[in-house]
């Protein structure tokens, strides 16, 4: 079951299985010797053309039905995994020809739940099992301010399409690795996101944010971020070196432009500037 931004990825059953347009979760039979998780990845690609990452845990569903095509009494045991695809993944399309599905599409959850989209019973059952993944993350960020032509400027980075809130500007920084001192995190992330080396100073404050959204991996998450804000001294022209990451631009921005609201910035930027002014 793949969810993204309030939509559910579904495959439409072939006419020989359902005369009316009827949708189901992408998936299929497990080949001999194949791990169920590998089967899901394979089947999702065959039915939607998308590369999916699946969870370690699964739900088990059991259903008995009469197959009219073969006039057979069937008992199916279904293993359902939660999955996610990259936020910039292409539109779904059927790769496997002559299979049991003939179309693939994202459908609004509201349409699925209301019945405006006709689905097999397993779809509603899987949605009832779903709970948004919870993640708490400790991160450290660099507040770098310089005076240029008589005006204060702050070093900011812009979230890419793979990051949370694409297009929003934030401070350079990121998650603290296990066992890593936060001050070292700041220096490492500053270098990775802007190409600049900085001298890490005092802790100027702590900020936190809590929201539900799509993670860089594509997974829907109930996210709580605890953010440590460090004062850092650095000079030079920033340059994004990791072009496939969650940052697509870095620049010195006038502090006045941030405070005026002329630029979309993360709340932690204003929090850091307020702490610095105290």
UniProtKB/TrEMBL annotation:
A Pfam entry, by short name: NUDIX
CDD domains the UniProt entry points to: NUDIX_Hydrolase (cd02883)
Residue ranges of domain Nudix hydrolase in the record: 1-128, 135-277
SUPFAM superfamilies: Nudix (SSF55811)
Keywords: Hydrolase
Cofactor(s) required, per the database record: Mg(2+)
PANTHER family: ADP-RIBOSE PYROPHOSPHATASE YJHB-RELATED, GDP-MANNOSE MANNOSYL HYDROLASE
Family statement drawn from the similarity comment of this UniProt entry: Belongs to the Nudix hydrolase family.
Protein name: ADP-ribose pyrophosphatase YjhB, NUDIX family
């Amino acid at each position: 079951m793949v969810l993204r931004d309030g939509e559910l990825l579904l495959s439409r059953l072939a006419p020989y299985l359902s005369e009316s347009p009827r949708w189901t979760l992408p998936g299929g039979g497990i080949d001999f010797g194949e791990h169920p998780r590998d089967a899901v990845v394979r089947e999702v690609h065959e039915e939607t053309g998308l590369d999916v990452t699946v969870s370690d845990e699964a739900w088990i569903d059991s259903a008995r039905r009469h197959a009219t095509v073969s006039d057979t009494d069937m008992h199916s045991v279904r293993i359902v995994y939660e999955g996610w695809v990259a936020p910039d993944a292409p539109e779904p399309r059927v790769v496997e020809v002559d299979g049991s599905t003939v179309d693939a599409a994202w459908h609004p959850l509201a349409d699925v739940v209301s019945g405006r989209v006709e689905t097999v019973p397993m779809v509603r059952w899987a949605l009832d099992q779903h709970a948004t993944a919870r993640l708490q993350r400790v991160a450290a960020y660099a507040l770098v301010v310089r005076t240029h032509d008589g005006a204060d400027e702050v070093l900011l980075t812009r979230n890419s399409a793979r990051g949370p809130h694409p297009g929003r500007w934030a401070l350079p920084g990121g998650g603290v690795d296990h066992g890593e001192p936060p001050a070292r995190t700041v220096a490492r992330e500053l270098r990775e996101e802007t190409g600049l080396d900085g001298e890490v100073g005092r802790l100027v404050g702590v900020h936190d944010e809590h929201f539900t959204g799509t993670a860089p991996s594509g997974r829907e998450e109930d996210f709580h971020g605890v953010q440590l804000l460090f004062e850092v001294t650095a000079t030079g022209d920033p340059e994004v070196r990791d072009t496939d990451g969650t940052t697509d631009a870095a620049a010195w921005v006038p502090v006045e432009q941030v405070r005026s609201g002329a630029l979309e910035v993360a709340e932690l930027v204003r929090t850091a500037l307020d702490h610095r002014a105290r």
